[in-house]
Specification:
Blueprint (H helix, E strand, L loop, with lengths): L2 H28 L6 H8 L3 H5 L5 H26 L3 H18 L1 H9 L16 H17 L6 H24 L8 H14 L3
Helix pairs in contact: 1-2, 1-4, 1-6, 4-5, 4-6, 4-7, 5-6, 5-7, 5-8, 5-9, 7-8, 8-9
């Protein structure tokens, strides 16, 4: 790549970030179905054509946003697994991190984990367009597997992993949706939900 091309790419990055930030906010506030490329263009003060220079359609834009969230979470998962050897402690740290990510960036969490869309239906795997999400999900399943007896079945692993994730996601979604509710001390609440779920693993 020549110097001119590198300069042009660098100039395009702020606009791409502007598009992604605005799209994340719109998706989080209005839902996938209610956001159009034209509405996004109006929000940032550019023409739809400008957005199409960066993303071919709404699906690509949405998947780019989900991948950002999954990449961040996967990075944190890998770091936890590498530095926290006992499986149960690693799993708890991963689940605590999921809650913390949601509270740190509610819009990213909504888009990554709470958004309804037409991208996943009965004919497509949930991870068909979502390889980072699949890797993230598999890391959690592997961590759960390490917490279970060696003779645990695949069904045991699947149900257990989904149950601890469901408990954690349920808590995170509630905290994001009702931030002013009287939840009590968050550290105690997180511990009661997450530690209880993980300690119950047979």
């Amino acid at each position: 790549m020549n110097t001119t091309s590198k300069t042009m790419d660098a100039q395009q990055q702020p606009l791409r970030m502007l598009i992604l930030d605005a799209a994340r906010k719109l998706f989080a506030e209005h839902g996938y179905a209610q956001v159009s490329m034209r509405k996004l263009a109006t929000t940032i003060g550019y023409s739809p054509t400008t957005i199409y220079h960066h993303f071919k359609d709404k699906k690509e834009l949405f998947l780019c946003l989900t991948e950002e969230t999954y990449r961040d979470f996967l990075h944190r998962i890998n770091r936890i697994i590498a530095t926290t050897p006992p499986p149960r402690e690693a799993l708890k740290d991963i689940l605590y991190t999921l809650v913390d990510m949601g509270l740190e960036n509610p819009n990213a969490y909504r888009v990554g984990f709470m958004m309804e869309s037409d991208l996943w239906n009965d004919h497509n795997s949930h991870f068909q367009d979502n390889p980072l999400g699949k890797t993230m999900y598999n890391r959690i399943n592997e961590c759960v597997k390490d917490c279970l007896p060696a003779n645990a079945s695949e069904e045991d692993i699947l149900v257990t992993a989904n149950s601890v994730v469901a408990a954690t996601h349920g808590l995170t979604s509630l905290l994001i949706t009702y931030p002013t509710f009287q939840w009590g001390p968050l550290d105690r609440l997180k511990a009661q939900v997450i530690d209880s779920a993980v300690d119950a693993i047979g």
